[in-house]
């Protein structure tokens, strides 16, 4: 999603009602993150929305992007949020061979999740937001959306298992807001 540089985004401040709706949506979509919401988005702070082409919205606080979404789809956390609160997101692990492709922005294929060295979380549904780390790595290097359930990935073992949304070193990672 952020392989290519994006133009300077159009920035606007969110109304307090929209900000409350975003906080509520985050608490609903990521229930384990709900206790940390006051640290991530303090109640008296001002969230900004940055509009990019292709209807991508970045939600930022003090120049740091926290979440993003495409159209009105689900909110996806920035990789830095996943690094700060790794226990709040399902984290799956790929084998060593898939890591170099992930760091170039490739989608995660099912064989990279079922081979030796990979670890899959049971019970993940299609459309779930997951963090992906490489074998032997401490932190996640990709945030993506499950394209199949974890059971289908194990059974079918072919095709795209996780769609890459944001990865370490992409243009969103390098973005420094003002």
TrEMBL record:
Q: Mind listing the UniProt keywords for this protein, alphabetically?
A: Cytoplasm
- Give its localization: Cytoplasm
Say where the protein is mainly found. Answer: cytoplasm
Question: For this protein, what is any one GO molecular function term?
Answer: RNA binding
Q: Which SMART domains match?
A: PUA
GO BP terms: formation of translation preinitiation complex
**InterPro entries on file:** MCT-1/Tma20, Pre-PUA, PUA, PUA-like_sf, Uncharacterised_CHP00451
* GO cellular component terms attached to this protein's record: cytoplasm
Gene3D superfamilies in alphabetical order = 3.10.400.20
Alphabetized PROSITE patterns for the sequence: PUA (PS50890)
Which CDD domains is this protein grouped with?
MCT1_N, PUA_MCTS-1-like
A Pfam family found in this protein is PUA
Instruction: Please list the residue ranges annotated as the PUA domain.
Output: 90-169
Q: What does this protein do?
A: Involved in translation.
The entry's family comment says:
Belongs to the TMA20 family.
| PANTHER family according to UniProt | MALIGNANT T-CELL-AMPLIFIED SEQUENCE 1, MCT-1 PROTEIN
Q: What is this protein called?
A: Translation machinery-associated protein 20
